Amino acid sequence: MIVDKTGTPITETENIQPDTRHGVILYVEDVSVSFDGFKALNDMNLYINDGELRCLIGANGAGKTTLMDVITGKTRPDTGKVSFGQQVDLLQLDEAEIANAGIGRKFQKPTVFEQLSVFENIELSLKGNKGIWASLFHKLNGEQNDRIAEILHTINLIQERNYPAGRLSHGQKQWLEIGMLLAAKPRVLLVDEPVAGMTGQETERTAELLTSLAGEHSVVVVEHDMAFVRSIARTVTVLHQGSVLAEGTMSEIQSNPEVIQVYLGEEQG
Amino acid sequence: MTSSISTNSSTKETSTGLMAKLSGLRNLHVVIGILLLATFYVSVCNLAFAEGSALHVSDYTVSLFGKYLCYALLALAVDLVWGYCGILSLGHGAFFTLGGYAMGMYLMRQIGDRGVYGNPDLPDFMVFLNWTEMPWYWAGSDSVLWMVAMVFIGPGILAYVFGMLAFRSRVSGVYLSIMTQAVTYALMLAFFRNEMGFGGNNGLTDFKEIMGFSLQSPSTKLGLFIITALVLAVAYVVCHYIVNSKMGRVVTAIRDAENRVRFVGYKPEDYKVWIYVVSAMIAGLAGALYVPQVGIINPGEFSPLNSIEMVIWVAVGGRNSLYGALIGAIVVSYAKTRFTAIMPEAWLFALGGLFVLVTLLLPKGIAGMLPGIMDKLKGKNAPEEEATASEPSATDNSATENKGSEVKS
Ligand SMILES: Nc1ncnc2c1ncn2[C@@H]1O[C@H](COP(=O)(O)OP(=O)(O)OP(=O)(O)O)[C@@H](O)[C@H]1O
Ligand SMILES: [Mg+2]
After folding, report:
1. Which intervals hold domain ABC transporter (chain A) (predicted)?
2. Which residues of B touch A181 (CB under 8 A)?
């Protein structure tokens, strides 16, 4: 059984409503994760505000993906607290429950269901009852068909709708995964390196899309492409060796001496 | 008829769009049609033509075909979990045999006082063991309803408990296969013991009648064959529905990227347990239909080798294709009948060799070869038909889909 922080049972994860009265939708507090003694996350503290667009940057191995793994239930932290709104303790939920509660994720390495068509990939991702009997007797209604068509249009894969997803190019797979995210209508989108493998034009469109999603959704983007980050960033958080090194607007970050030393410095140099 | 099979299998893996759905439906009709026609033909030839006539089908052959159809049903069960969900069960013989035992217990009770010891209350083997009363779990076994219920409940419970333990703890791959094999082996050892109360190594046999019909009579044999064919047809329709529903797509997604499925909000464990239980019940049903047609059920049916053989049927016929499973079961079983008549000791080598060959040369089995064969048979009709059968975008798709399937294989 799933209970929220006060011990009240929650029967349907789909119906979980995060309590965001304090304006924060995601709390990550004192979280540490170690792999064979190596601390991938080290007392990490991070607060994501409801409706904001946040960029996470940091060198390879800084712990960005691990942070997403912790939030989505893939990795259990050794210590710390992670909650969705004030009340929903994410550490009590499994991956599927977290997804249904409204936290969606795009993986760093795009992973789509290769044997299924583009259309079917979106269909499976649609928000709704994900139980066995619901799937067995599921029929797409007109509204859902329209929604899928709309998403296919947004991600520019209408032509490819019946292609097996495995045949898409890397960039198209990225788009498909973003489409799958949209279909799930999550409150929070965790987007790990969305523009890797995309052309300049595609990158631009992704930036537009993510910016337009913020507000109604909270969006957390991890990206190495600094031009891209600059184009969408409002608040940027810099991770370094598993902890937060700095946080602020892009210009604040760029002038932060510590950041310049450990991160931007090496890139500019 | 022929063209629909080929159209379907070339679009199968990606089965989307209206076209694929339509041809999927046509394929269903073709398979059921062939099955029912063949059943009708065998029945007529058995009844209407006298022995000695070239068209006569003997009672022995009818029972043999009945046995093959049971195997086909079993293959369908294996394909459902292995071909579609990627669970390589090497222990499906356990479900088959449990279903068989449920039927065997019922048939045992129908013997009444006609057994060797003439005991009206106890089956012969219990009298032989000096038991004075029936074990509690034989209670009710003389009722048809009990039998039908147990055919599903027995295998269903085993699959549920095993599935909950194995899938919940996220055991998969080789470890899972070994566990399924261990389960059927353990059951074999248990059922060999007389104290289990299932007739020890002799199993249950010497059946006399089923629901009042003598099992020795040719008409009962024919009736059992026809019932098996009808059950197979119904099971095929059910499996077809499952694999073409959203359930089927979730299960395929689980097969290809189980962990990713979780992040879309599905619980793979639940789906795997469900499909495993359904598959176990179909296997149990196959066992129950098998027993009256062969006249015996014993612990040898639990043998791990039997379970491996089932997997080979599906591999030969083509996993991920329902009709492939049927073809594989029937072709390999027929080969076995022929082969074991000539050199029984060599069958296992032949079977192993067949498996290696199919894995290397025909990864998609016979079903994967059919489209090519059909295209050749169709000859110059093919382009014409394609043009009428597809909208502009679908032609484009089918070309890419064919490429896709090459890459996959
Ligand atoms: N399952 C694991 N087992 C062992 N070490 C791991 C595991 N996952 C991550 N790590 C290590 O933890 C550290 C942080 O990894 P993480 O993937 O979070 O980095 P990242 O910031 O996403 O880097 P990148 O920019 O390269 O994607 C790395 O040193 C990585 O090798
Ligand atoms: Mg990463």
Report:
1. 26-266
2. none
Please report the pLDDT score of residue B177 as a whole number: 95
Across the interface, do B245 and A138 touch by the CB < 8 Å criterion?
Answer: yes
Q: Are strands A103-106 and A188-192 parallel, antiparallel or unpaired?
A: parallel
Q: Give domain limits for chain B.
A: 64-363
> Between A and B, how many CB-CB pairs are < 8 A?
111
Structure tokens at A77: 């932290």
Q: Which of the four pLDDT bands, split at 50, 70 and 90, describes residue B404?
A: very low
- pLDDT tens figures, A152-173: 999 999 999 999 999 999 889 9
Name which of A124, A166, A167 is nearest B264 (Cβ-Cβ): A124
Q: Does the CB atom of residue A146 touch ligand 1 within 6 A? A: no
Residue type at B369?
Answer: M
**With contacts defined as CB-CB under 8 Å, which chain B residues touch A124?**
246, 249-250, 253, 264, 266
Is residue A63 lining ligand 1, measured as CB closer than 6 Å?
Answer: yes
B216-250 burial string, b = 16+ CB within 10 Å, else e? eeeebbbbbbbebbebbbebbeebbebbbbbbbbb
Residue B268 to residue B259: CA distance in whole angstroms: 8
- The CB-based long-range contact list for A256-264 (8 Å cut-off, 24+ gap) reads A262/A59, A263/A57, A263/A58, A263/A59, A263/A238
State whether the beta carbon of A15 lies less than 6 angstroms from ligand 1: no
Token match 């189980």: residue? B258
Q: Quick one: which of B214, B232, B218 has its CA closest to B39?
A: B232
For A104, the 3-state DSSP assignment is: strand
Ion ligand 2 neighbours (CB, 5 A) are A 64-65, 108
For B325-342, the pLDDT digits (tens) are 999 999 999 999 999 999
Separation between Cα atoms, residue B184 and residue A200, nearest integer Å: 58
| Cβ–Cβ < 8 Å for A256, A246 | yes
Of A225, A204, A53, A69, the closest CA to residue B263 belongs to A69
Chain A residues with CB inside 8 Å of B263's CB?
72, 74, 95-96, 99, 104-105, 107
DSSP secondary structure string for all residues of B119-180: -SSS-HHHHHTT--S--GGGTTTTSHHHHHHHHHHHHHHHHHHHHHHHHHTT--HHHHHHHH
* CA atoms lying within 13 Å on the CB side of residue B122: 17
Domains, chain A: 2-268 (3.40.50.300)
Residue A62 CA: nearest ligand 1 atom is 21
Ligand sitting nearest the alpha carbon of A40:
1
Q: Is A60 in the pocket of ligand 1 (CB under 6 A)?
A: yes
- pTM confidence score: 0.87
pLDDT higher than 60, residue B390: no
Residues 6+ apart with CB under 8 A from B279: B77, B78, B80, B81, B89, B92, B95, B159
Q: pLDDT value at position B18?
A: 53
- pLDDT tens readout for residues A7-63: 555 555 556 777 777 789 999 999 999 999 899 999 999 999 999 999 999 989 999
The answer, yes or no, to whether any atom of ligand 1 lies below 6 A from the CB of A40, is: yes
